[in-house]
Amino acid sequence: MFGSSWNPPSELTASVSPWERLGVESANAQTIVALQKKETDNDLGREHYDYEVVGADYKVFFKRNFSEGKVLRFEKGENWFEVAPRDLRWVLVDEKGKETGEQHISPPREISGAPLKDKPNHMRWPHAYGGKLNFEWVAESAQIIKYLSIENFSHLPQLEGDLRMHADNVYLELNLRFEVPDFLEVHLAKDKDDKQVIQFVGSRQGVVWEFFQPSYWDSAAERSEKDLPFVLRDDRVGERMFTLPQGVKHIKGMLINLAIRLPYVWLEAAEYPVYIDPIINILDSNGTSDDALVINSLEPRHYYLAQWEWYGEGNTGYWGAPSRGARQPDAIGVLDLRTLPQMGKSGGISEGYGIFAYRAEKNIPGSIYVGSDLDGNLKLTEQKALQDILKLRKLPTGTWRDVLWDIFTTYSDPTGKTAPKPLAGKLDGTVKLYLNGFGMIKEEEFNNQHRQRSIAVFQDDYKRKRRDGVSLKVLHRWTGETMQELYGRMDAGLAKEILPNPYKEDGWKKPETTITDNFNRADSSDLGANWTESQGDFQILTNVLDIVSLTTSWAVAKHNTALSSANHYVQANVNRETSGNQVGPGMVGRFADTSNYYYCKVDISGIDDQRIYKIVTGTRTSLGEASDDWNNGSVMKLEIDGSSLKMYEGATLRVSVTDSGITGNTTAGVVTDDATAGVDWDDFEAADLAATYQPRPAVINSSNNSFLGF
After folding, report:
1. Distance (Å, rounded) from C-alpha 706 to C-alpha 710?
2. Could you please report the per-residue DSSP string of 52-90?
3. How are beta strands 644-649 and 72-76 bridged, if at all?
4. Is the distance from CB of 230 to CB of 29 less than 8 angstroms?
5. Which of 174, 245, 416, 634 makes an SS bond possible with 340, Cβ 3.0 to 4.6 Å?
6. How many domains does the chain contain in total?
7. Kind and range of the H or E element at 454?
8. Pair 564, 513: CB distance under 8 Å
9. 600 — phi, psi (to 5°)?
């Protein structure tokens, strides 16, 4: 029924007490729960979610974007938990159960989920982990069922290297991270069928929820529940966290990494589709009817085509979403439809337009109200207005979703002078157009049309770099990386094809660049030969990079080693001044000069604001922001991949935007508009994204890295 080639490991069928099972090493288990103490009990709050479902004595909240950190929140009285999807991967274990290898499959994708029309208690994210690997949450009267569905075995990547040679010991691992408050007790118990469960118990409400044994099944079988033990392990020290002689333990605040493993040989023999379901029992004492559980939009979304608005004055001014006189933009998502010359104009009335998403309707003079979604067809008056506003070559047709995609593909300009630059992509990947507050507008496999647009952008950037005097050493690596990204190979003939005239003979080299600096050297006003203080004044002070002063309200330091690719990440441990309405530190990517680059930063303005900006010809534009507590000393990471920009705190995604304005630049660094004591950077790192075709984990302090994976 489940494939005769697989039998459970001996440790799962042996006569072992639940207490002994709880203490075994994590590598021996097919279900792993790793707990880490957490100093704060603060949570995101329901205002960050897009949908809700209401039971008799509980509520569940969902986010639309599957990759936006915590995507589900459960509340029952004072108790709550939040769930963030993590990576999907293959893992190899030896005969002792120790993990000896892995093959990454996919992180959570930027997929826009929604309730199913015929199943209003189902929240579904199609292709959440890539093609036909879907994720779904089902709210039932007594359970939250969450499952990964695999439509065909061919949709999983083939095993490589040692994993392929030892397929009998390979497992598919689905990772989820739970955050729970600091006032719950953890109980090990058994259910009515004598199955082992882990219960989370509140001081007044008793058992709030519990983890059941995971289930998985294929189209030819009933739901299968294997005796897969839960293991509690402190990843910080790599040892057992505790033993439970009485089955009870109180732990102050937890981050729980739950990994569910399925054997490769079972997946190979199964009849598809296949489902993987780690159930949570939520113990609804009032017994809400399943029919009454409907996932509803938490707040409406409203979309406008409108001109940008200028905020502030002088060197600290910037373009933002129109907000009708508010102190700062209040849009929850933006798409910049301007040309580069329009982006570079400072102050006054904007010459260009954008798409802006809001939680409430706005009265924006001169705007076009798109509606509460992007799936409505354009009216003739809207078609004509859009053609005139954006100077389109022909009358746009179809839905707003279709037209926005066309603006960044068919109607794009690789120079950015007459239209937005095209969306970027690379071989074996997808090209994405994403709007925060909506989700994925459209995603398409990278094809030859996208490749030709990318080559046109590369050639225009290459000629600009040659005019600017960028060294051939830097350009050689960039050319090699571009060939690898677009074709999956590198050779002299291909280099001649993609290089622009009159530089066909410039040549290429194999790309390979990683930059690190821990600043562990003597205090000095000289940062060293690897750094240039492009703006403002920095110093080395007590083994960190420290800000001294600003120039025209800004300070920028760039690392002198150019990366090989414009698709890269840059990160550091950052500290900012912790009181007052202060601005703060940031990370710089795709740096050309002090007038052209992307950056992310954290501000202090009552609450911490995390933002992504671009600077074009010296003019700033705010592309996206989030308001969450920022832990001082944590890793700030800016990741730029094609037209996708993401800001992370450690492993947590804070801000995600789409922008195609700045391309081709391969330099990284740091930035700030705050010279207050206490603003500094440590453990700087930057590297190319495309070199391995796999996401690189953020580097974080060894004292705070236990929850980042398995």
Report:
1. 9
2. EEE-SS-EEEE-SBTTSS--EEEEETTEEEEEEEEEEEE
3. unpaired
4. yes
5. 416
6. 2
7. helix 448-467
8. yes
9. -120, 155
pLDDT at 590 over 70: yes
Label residue 694 by pLDDT band (50, 70, 90).
very low
Domain boundary among 297, 329, 344: 297
| CA–CA gap between residue 542 and residue 559 (Å, rounded) | 20
> What does the alpha-carbon distance between residue 190 and residue 200 come to, in Å, rounded to a whole number?
13
> Letter for the amino acid at 539?
Q
Single-letter amino acid, residue 664: G
Helix (H) or strand (E) holding 163: helix 161-165
What are the C-alpha distances in Å from 160 to residues 102, 134, 153, 484, 512? 10, 23, 16, 20, 23
Q: Output the domain CATH number for residue 590.
A: 2.60.120.560
> Residues 11-16: what's their mean pLDDT?
32
The pLDDT mean for the chain works out to: 79
Both tokens of 598, joined, read 């992307």
| pLDDT for the residue 141 | 62
Determine the Cα–Cα distance for residues 645 and 474; give it in Å rounded to an integer: 23
3-state secondary structure of 238: coil
pLDDT for res 117: 66
What is the C-alpha separation between 251 and 186, in angstroms, rounded?
A: 7
Mean pLDDT across the stretch 664-677? 89
- Nearest 5°: the CA angle 257, 74, 124 is 80
DSSP 290: G
DSSP letter for each residue of 219-233: TTS--EE------EE
Q: Positive or negative, the Cα torsion across 343, 344, 346, 348? A: negative
Torsion-angle region of 3 (φ positive above 0: left; ψ -120 to 50: alpha; else: beta) = left
pLDDT of residue 222: 52
Element (H, E) at 449: helix 448-467
- The answer on pLDDT for 52 being more than 70 is yes
Q: Is the peptide bond before 500 cis (omega within 30 degrees of 0)?
A: no
Q: Are 262 and 171 in contact (CB under 8 A)?
A: yes
Please report whether residue 442 resides in a domain: no
Split at pLDDT 50, 70, 90, the class of 187 is: confident
pTM exceeding 0.85:
no
Residues 6 or more apart in contact with residue 619 via CB below 8 angstroms: 318, 319, 343, 344, 345, 346
Q: What is the pLDDT, as a whole number, of residue 30?
A: 40
End-to-end CA distance of the chain: 31
**Is 328 part of any domain?**
no
Cα–Cα distances in Å, from 607 out to 104, 181, 303, 575? Answer: 36, 21, 26, 15
In a domain, 455, yes or no: no
Decide if pLDDT at 354 tops 60. yes
Domain holding 549, by residue range, is 514-704
Question: Domain for residue 549, yes or no?
Answer: yes
Q: Torsion angle of alpha carbons 457, 458, 462, 464, nearest 10°? A: 20
Residues 75-102: b if buried by 16+ CB within 10 A, e if exposed:
bbeebbbbbbbbbbbbbbbeeebebebb
Q: How confident is the model at residue 280 (pLDDT cuts 50, 70, 90)?
A: low
Structure tokens belonging to residue 530: 């690897």
Q: How long a stretch of residues is the chain?
A: 710
Q: Which of 260-274, 404-418, 438-452, 596-610 has the lowest mean pLDDT?
A: 596-610
Omega cis (within 30) before 502: yes
